[in-house]
Amino acid sequence: MSDETKATVRRRDFLRRVGVGTVGAGATLATPLVGSVHADSENNDEKRKARYKETDHVKAYYRVNRYPT
Asked: Of 12, 24, 38, 68, whose CA is between 20 and 30 Å from 53?
């Protein structure tokens, strides 16, 4: 029984270390991207305009899935 406990602890320690290493690698890779973030190019009127369009493929989706139109 003690062998199983030791194996479990080792596995958990390994997974913790791998997780910490992954987070650290992700942080170093993401750091250059932070400086290159651009502002939104849409003004307030463009953000509020209607974007939904009931096209043929949307109508087909509704018809196939029996949504009322």
From this structure: 38
Q: Which domain holds residue 30?
A: 2-64
Distance CA 69, CA 65 (A): 11
The residue whose two tokens read 């899935």 is: 65
CA distance 66 to 69: 9
Q: ∠ at Cα 69 (51, 59), nearest 5°? A: 60
pTM score above 0.70 = no
> CB 32: neighbour CB atoms within 10 A?
8
What percent of the chain is predicted at pLDDT more than 70? Answer: 58
